[in-house]
Amino acid sequence: MELSDFFQPVSKTVLAEAGKLQPTSLAKVFSVHTEAKGFPDMEGIQLAIVGVEEDRRAVNNEGCGLAPDYVRSHLYKLFKGNYPVKIADLGNISKGHSVEDTYFALTSVLAELLRLNIVPIILGGGNDLTYPTYLAYEKLEQTINMVSVDPAFDLGTIESDLDSQSYLGRIILHQPNFLFNFSNLGYQSYFVEQTSVELMEKLNFDLHRLGQARARLEDMEPVIRNADVLSFDISAIRTSDAPGCGNSSPNGFYGEEACQIARYAGISDKLSSIGFYELNPAFDTNKQTAHLVAQMVWYFIDGFYNRKKDFPFAEKGDYTKFRVFVKDHKHEIVFFKSTRSDRWWMEVPYPPNKRLKFERHHLVPCTYSDYELACQEEMPDRWWQTFLKLS
User: Fold this and answer.
1) Is the dihedral of CA 282, 171, 255, 213 positive or negative?
2) How many whole angstroms separate alpha carbon 292 and alpha carbon 75?
3) How far is Cα 313 from Cα 320, in angstroms, rounded to an integer?
4) What is the pLDDT of residues 94-120, one digit of tens each?
5) What would the mean pLDDT of 333-355 be, rounded to a whole number?
6) What is the pLDDT of residues 33-89, one digit of tens each?
7) 190 vs 329: which has the higher pLDDT
8) H/E element, 90
9) What is d(CA 179, CA 189) in angstroms, rounded to the nearest whole number?
10) How wide is the angle at C-alpha 111 spanned by C-alphas 291 and 185, nearest 5°?
11) Of 201, 234, 182, nearest to 64 (Cα)?
12) Residues 132, 111 contacting (CB under 8 angstroms)
């Protein structure tokens, strides 16, 4: 099947509003799937907006399938930055006869976009759409890292049906498994069972409580830089900034912090797909949340067009190499600092027989603080967690 077979054109209502906008607005520079012009030519496209109307498994939030067009109406009004953009808006994937039909369509679309080296920006729909996103990488047989910005873990139970609050459990149990690492940003302890925290720690996954993430948001950049997939649940943003979600709560990230996270995702050379989920227009006040998500997408696009292309390694001369011995000189950690972006990585050894499987994951993004910690003969937590997974 062709990509175009999975999509409905952007609605005429959104296009009618876009027709009144200025020539430098995103509406005018996107290649948009319309009834009149048909499906866009994908030659040279770098980013693709994929709307998904599926919300039947969005717990307490049915109606979020209407979100993509509400986001578009605000996104189209924004102006592009000082760079040429090659972005296509492919339209919406409609609800299938069954939820599994929608999952199949989304997995097929994403696998093809990834094969074409096009980064999809998914506008959901429920957070359960992260599961078919993961399956797209399985099609490519690619081991990946995931980051979820979410106030909970969405593990569910073994008996749970697949939905927006159990998709991660399905990913972890899925065989064959292509998940190397999972990181949560912004979980709120009162929404998470202690046994779930213990399970995640046993799996050597990265957990960052809301207070910890907000206190040093810049330390979350290496976590995001290490990801192939980022899933953003809008309920991770506080109700005052994003009321448009059936699961929103008083606490969460501020709107500007959510935009910063989206930009961190954009500037990551490794990240190859991002999804924004659980926006529900029925709960939105003055379309405030739709406007915020549109700005988050803008920040992701801005970050993407400011990528430094320093991972995977470019030229050796673009890096400064540091060797640090710790624990009575029994262990050595090799650090690399990019002269292009001043960002840091550290090298984690892995068994030679696992080279092909883990080659993408042995260079771990880190901070200057990790280097300072190693200089004090302390092993950074990021190094240990990765070493245990590689062993």
Assistant:
1) positive
2) 9
3) 12
4) 999 999 999 999 999 999 999 999 999
5) 83
6) 999 999 999 999 999 999 999 999 999 999 999 999 999 999 999 999 999 999 999
7) 190
8) strand 87-93
9) 24
10) 50
11) 234
12) no
Residue 267, both tokens: 């500037």
- The H-assigned helical ranges of the chain are 12-18, 26-29, 67-75, 99-115, 130-139, 167-173, 194-202, 210-215, 221-225, 255-267, 288-304, 355-358, 368-375, 381-390
Residue 3, Cα to own-chain centre: how many angstroms?
22
Provide the token pair at 20: 């009144």
Is residue 69 a contact partner of residue 92, using CB atoms and an 8 Å limit? Answer: yes
CA–CA dist 120, 89 (Å, integer):
10
Structure tokens at 87: 């972005």
- Read off the pLDDT of residues 299-315 as tens digits, 9 standing for 90 and up: 999 999 999 988 766 66
Within 10 A of 214 (CB to CB), how many other CB atoms are there? 17
The domains found in the chain, sorted by start residue, are: 3-304 (3.40.800.10), 316-390 (no CATH)
Whether residue 352 is preceded by a cis peptide bond, meaning omega within 30 degrees of 0, is no
Beta bridge partners of 47: 87, 119
Closest CA to 209 of 220, 224, 225, 221: 220
Model confidence, pTM: 0.94
